[in-house]
Specification:
Length: 241
């Protein structure tokens, strides 16, 4: 196995000299990486820990069903900013596709609007298998028509996130249902600033949050998956027991 540094200069992505061993990705400058680490990542870690504790307790206690969402608190604006900054790291194309979003995140705008053409969705993901990936497209060609089109994705227990094109733009092409159509949209979380540190998740998600596996693992032989081999990044692994 080899690894190489990822470089973006004048909107062009290249890699440095390959080196043996390891698996890693460099996708943010020091300032942007520090921006996420100092302001948003702790809120994401707290949210994930609360979800993990809730589902762990459900294995020992008779708790109500998580409808429409688990009864945990979250700092919505901080959490989605942490997610999106991470997606800009794994998917450099986002910087040129959505420059206003990149600018708003970088400058810590208190209220951000998701750009036209993109939607952020969230689901519960209990698997120990992890996957962080940039742009990819999958089309289910057997058993039923279905598509999986993402700009960036994060599958890391206990949550899965998908930044995808707006569904209405794809349905017109006769591609069938999106594999993430049942996931609630969380674009509105960007409207919350850093000052909102605790809201009940049930207040934010009126639509049920599904428990999912990665869509391409279900009937893997039924899918055709395409990606750009010189720019796409895929990081996969497993969380130890």
């Amino acid at each position: 196995m080899t690894s190489a540094a990822v470089r973006v200069h004048s909107n062009e992505r290249t890699t440095g000299r390959p080196r043996a061993g390891g698996m890693w990705l460099r996708g943010l400058c020091r300032d942007c990486n520090s921006l996420a680490g100092e302001n948003y990542d702790a809120a994401y870690g707290d949210f994930a820990a609360r979800l993990a504790a809730y589902f762990s307790a459900r294995t020992r206690l008779l708790l109500p069903a998580a409808e429409p969402a688990p009864p945990v608190s979250v700092a919505p604006g901080r959490v989605v900013r942490s997610v999106l900054i991470g997606m800009f790291a794994t998917t450099p194309h986002l910087r040129t596709m959505f420059p206003d979003l990149a600018h708003d995140l970088q400058h810590r705008r208190p209220h951000i609007t998701m750009p036209d053409g993109a939607t952020l969705r969230m689901a519960l993901y209990p698997s120990r298998s992890t996957r962080l990936a940039s742009m990819a497209y999958g089309l289910r060609i057997l058993t039923r028509r279905q598509h999986y089109h993402i700009f960036s994705e994060i599958y890391f227990r206990p949550l899965a996130w998908a930044l995808s094109p707006n569904e209405d733009r794809l349905d017109a092409d006769g591609l069938g249902e999106s594999a993430v159509s049942s996931w609630p949209v969380v674009d509105q979380w960007l409207k919350y600033g850093d000052d909102v540190t605790a809201l009940d998740l049930r207040y934010l998600c009126h639509r049920r949050i599904p428990i999912v596996d990665h869509p391409l693992r279900e009937g893997r032989d039924e899918w055709v998956e395409t990606f750009q081999n010189d720019t796409a990044a895929f990081l996969e692994g497993n969380i130890p027991s």
